[in-house]
Specification:
The chain is of the alpha/beta class. The chain is 46% helix and 19% strand. α2 crosses α11. The protein starts with a helix and ends with a helix. 52% of the residues are buried.
Length: 383
């Protein structure tokens, strides 16, 4: 009797174990490979939290094609070499997709691994070069500099009626790509760049670059640096009494920058592809849910991570099976409407390079908050 009972228990245990492995095999594994420390910690943490919020919602609603999503999070330390190694590790672990890194310098290095392994890779990186290499597995969840900068230049030329601009940028892949794109877009809009001011990643003292900007006496200043540096630049500009318009792209008016710069952020204007203050019920709902889970307000990187997961979901559902190669193919040319897929937050179209097109916004910081001044149509809609 005891012997039979032991056999029965052993069998039950085996069945239970078997059931677990079957359940695990059915999960869609994704890796969050992001900057949780180093210069990109703010961007990477927001992106990761956005991804995890989307995963939590999707799993609570029954998953994708009945399969739950499993996430692993790895810290690149804002180091491209580390990002490359972690991406290889995630691939060895059999992930379906990789989310991140956010920093352009890191994704430029790590995406070679996901491409080789035919693993879809969603990034918040904005450097134009990311999607210019013909990699069929890279998908952007933000605007590329080449689509964002013409919108900024148009605002500087038409909105501010500026004839001359000083450009301050961070000397890394992100900054140099932005500087090249804005210079080209300003020239096309008939605006002259009269000062080209390079700063370092992680730079603490902005007194010299600000002095150069003041001496240039341009009609406006365009600032394109990472979060912490943007806040330092804004503080120094106020300290030195700079009074001309200060314009940027996305980062300059981000929540983290506003918090760090305090009063000095007021009056700064930027073109943003994504803002939690967009006049949209879906975006406001996302803002509230993110705040509920993380007790702070998401910046644009949180939205990038969140919408990236929902883009993946829309593509998997379109294909009808969890197949990496087919899903990557389906993402090219995919149009997703927010009415049918609320998680994408705004109607979005993905092109054949992995770049996206959607509405965007001109915002101004007032009383420590982003206020939307203008809603700009998707580039293709504007044509």
């Amino acid at each position: 009797m005891t012997h039979t009972r032991h056999t029965f228990l052993a069998l039950a245990a085996l069945i239970a174990l078997g059931g677990t492995s079957v359940a695990q095999a059915q999960a869609i594994k994704i890796a969050n490979i992001v900057e949780l420390s180093g210069a990109g910690a703010s961007a990477g943490t927001n992106f990761k939290n956005g991804v995890e919020l989307a995963v939590k919602e999707i799993n609570a609603a029954g998953g994708i094609l009945g399969k739950k999503i499993e996430t692993t999070t790895l810290d690149t330390q804002s180091n491209p070499g580390v990002a490359k190694g972690l991406t290889q590790k995630a691939i060895d672990d059999g992930v379906f997709a990789v989310f991140g890194p956010v920093f352009s310098g890191s994704i430029m290095v790590s995406m070679a691994e996901t491409q080789r392994a035919e693993v879809p890779n969603f990034t918040g990186g904005e450097a134009a070069a990311i999607t210019q290499k013909g990699n069929p597995y890279i998908f952007r969840t933000s605007f590329t500099q080449t689509t964002a900068m013409p919108k900024v230049a148009r605002y500087i030329a038409n909105g501010l009626k500026a004839k001359t601009v000083a450009v301050m940028y961070v000397n890394n892949d992100f900054g140099k790509g932005g500087r090249d794109a804005i210079t080209k877009a300003l020239e096309a809009s008939g605006v002259k760049v009269v000062a080209d001011i390079s700063t370092d990643s992680g730079q603490i003292d902005f007194s010299a670059p600000v002095l150069k900007a003041k001496s240039a006496n341009a009609d406006a200043l365009f600032v394109y640096t990472n979060e912490e540096e943007s806040a330092r630049a804004l503080r120094e500009l106020r300290k030195q009494g700079y009074t001309k318009p200060i314009v940027g792209e996305t980062t300059l008016t981000g929540q983290k920058v506003i918090e760090l710069a305090g009063e000095a952020a007021n009056g700064a204007v930027a073109h943003v592809g994504l803002t939690v203050d967009a006049p949209s019920p879906l975006m406001l709902k996302f803002k509230a849910k993110f705040y509920q889970d993380y007790k702070y307000i998401s910046d644009h990187n949180g939205i990038k991570g969140y919408t990236g997961v929902y883009l993946m979901k829309a593509a998997i559902e379109k294909v009808g099976k969890v197949d990496r190669i087919e899903v990557a193919k389906a993402l090219h040319g995919l149009k997703v409407s927010a009415a049918k897929h609320p998680g994408v937050l705004m109607d979005v179209a993905m092109d054949n390079n992995g770049d996206l097109d959607r509405e965007s916004f001109i915002v101004e910081v007032k009383n420590g908050k982003q206020e939307v001044k203008e809603v700009l149509p998707a580039l293709n809609a504007a044509k």
